[in-house]
Design a protein that fits this description.
By secondary structure, the protein is an alpha/beta fold. The chain has one domain: TIM Barrel, CATH 3.20.20. The protein has 14 helices and 10 strands. The protein starts with a helix and ends with a strand. The structure holds iron/sulfur cluster. Iron/sulfur cluster (SF4) binds next to loops. The site of iron/sulfur cluster has 12 residues, from loops.
Length: about 350
C-alpha cells in the first residue's frame, strides 16, 4: 500500500495523467501532502506566481424558474420568495454601476422562465450590447439554453448561433454535479449530464468558451465527485473550451435540502487539490471565496488554485441561503498579496489588464 501511494505521488510530481481510481485514493491523503501536490501540479501548468481576479457583476434578471431545484434557495416560491423580473432600465443601471467601478464583465442569469423565448434572450443581449458595446457578456447557462431550445422547438445550434451573433461572449458552465443519479434527486427538471455535454459540444462548434463548476456536498459519494471530474476532463479533452474549474460547496439553508450537514473546509481544499491534479487540461482553478469565505480561498491559492474569480458586485443566489461574503478590488489585492503572489486584474479571456 505504501509502495502504491509513493508511486502515485511520483506520477503526480512528474505531471503524468492520473486515472479516476487514483484520484479517488487522493481523498484519503493527508491534506498538507495533498495540497503540496496540488501546488506542484499548478506550477507545471501555470508557473507564474500570480493570481487573477475580474471585476464583474451578476445581474439576476429574474428569479422565476420552472425547474424549482431542491438545492436552490434563489427561485421564486409561493408564500416564501417573491417573484421578480428586472426591467431594461434596472439592468442598465446595474451595468452602469459596474462600469463606474472599472468592471468589464456581466453575467446575466435567471432561471428557466416559462414565458421566455429565444427572442426574449436575444432582446436582452442586443439591448445591453447596443448601450454598452465594450461590456463582455459571460451569461446565461447550459440549462437556460436547453430550456429555450426545448420550449421553442429551435435546435440548440441555432439558439447558440443567434445568441453569439447578438453579442453573447461566453456561457458559464453551471455544471452542478454531473451524475444523473444525484441530479434526479436534487434537480430533476433541469438538464441531464448528456445534455450538458451536448451544450459544451455546441459551444465548441461555435468557437465559444465556457467553464466547469462543481457543487458538492449534496449527499453524493466520493466516487460521484470523481465521476463529475471525469466527465469534465473528457469534455475538455474533446473541446478545450473550459477556461476554468470552479468548485463550491452546497449551502443548505433556505433550500428544500436544509437537513444536509454542510461540507467542511478540509473537504473543499481536497477538492481544489484533486481537481488541479486530475484536470490536467484546465489552466485555471478558481478559489471559491463566495461560498467558502475569503480566508479559506487564500489557502486554496497555495493548494492548486490560481484565480480568485470575480469581485461579483451584488451576488444574490448564494446570498439567498444566508451566506453573505462580500469583497472589493482592494481587499482582493490584499488577500492575494498576502499569499506572496502577484495580484492581477484580468479580462474574461484571462488576459492581464493590470498588475498590482
Ligand atoms: S438552480 Fe437554477 S434551474 Fe434550479 S431552481 Fe435555481 S434558478 Fe432554477
Amino acid at each position: 500500500m505504501e509502495y502504491k501511494s509513493d508511486s502515485l505521488k511520483q506520477k503526480i510530481i512528474s505531471g503524468e495523467r492520473i486515472s479516476p481510481l487514483e484520484a479517488r485514493q487522493l481523498f484519503e491523503m493527508d491534506i498538507i501532502e495533498l495540497g503540496y501536490l496540488g501546488d506542484m501540479r499548478r506550477k507545471l501548468v501555470f508557473p507564474q506566481e500570480q493570481v487573477g481576479f475580474i471585476i464583474d457583476r451578476i445581474v439576476n434578471y429574474s428569479n422565476i424558474c420552472q425547474a424549482a431545484c431542491n438545492f436552490c434557495a434563489f427561485h421564486a416560491r409561493a408564500n416564501r420568495i417573491e417573484a421578480y423580473e428586472l426591467s431594461s432600465d434596472e439592468i442598465f443601471a446595474k451595468i452602469e454601476a459596474l462600469l463606474a467601478a472599472g468592471g468589464t464583465q456581466v453575467m446575466l442569469q435567471g432561471g428557466l422562465h416559462p414565458d421566455h423565448t429565444l427572442d426574449t434572450y436575444l432582446g436582452m443581449v442586443k439591448k445591453v450590447k447596443k448601450r454598452f458595446p465594450d461590456v463582455y457578456l459571460h451569461s446565461f447557462s447550459p440549462a437556460e439554453l436547453v430550456h429555450i431550445s426545448q420550449k421553442t422547438g429551435i435546435d440548440l445550434n441555432s439558439v447558440v448561433s443567434a445568441l453569439k451573433d447578438a453579442g453573447l461572449g461566453s456561457v458559464p458552465g453551471a455544471s452542478d454535479l454531473l451524475v444523473d443519479e444525484i441530479r434526479s434527486k436534487v434537480s430533476n427538471r433541469k438538464l441531464t449530464t448528456d445534455e450538458w455535454c451536448e451544450v459544451m459540444d455546441c459551444l465548441h462548434a461555435h468557437q465559444m468558451k465556457s467553464s466547469a463548476t462543481m457543487t458538492y456536498g449534496m449527499g453524493e459519494t466520493l466516487d460521484d465527485r470523481i465521476e463529475h471530474l471525469r466527465v469534465i476532463r473528457e469534455v475538455q479533452d474533446r473541446t478545450g473550451i473550459l477556461r476554468a474549474f470552479i468548485p463550491w460547496s452546497f449551502s443548505p439553508p433556505m433550500t428544500r435540502m436544509e437537513d444536509i450537514v454542510p461540507a467542511t473546509g478540509i473537504e473543499y481544499l481536497k477538492i481544489v487539490a484533486i481537481g488541479r491534479i486530475f484536470l490536467d487540461n484546465i489552466t485555471y482553478i478558481q478559489a471559491g471565496w463566495l461560498t467558502e469565505g475569503l480566508k479559506l480561498a487564500q489557502l486554496a491559492l497555495i493548494m492548486g488554485a490560481n484565480d480568485m474569480g470575480g469581485v461579483l458586485m451584488e451576488e444574490v443566489v448564494v446570498k439567498a441561503t444566508g451566506i453573505e461574503t462580500k469583497t472589493n478590488r482592494d481587499e482582493m489585492i490584499s488577500l492575494i498579496s498576502n499569499t506572496g503572489k502577484t495580484p492581477v486584474q484580468r479580462d474574461s479571456d484571462y488576459r492581464v489588464i493590470r498588475s498590482f
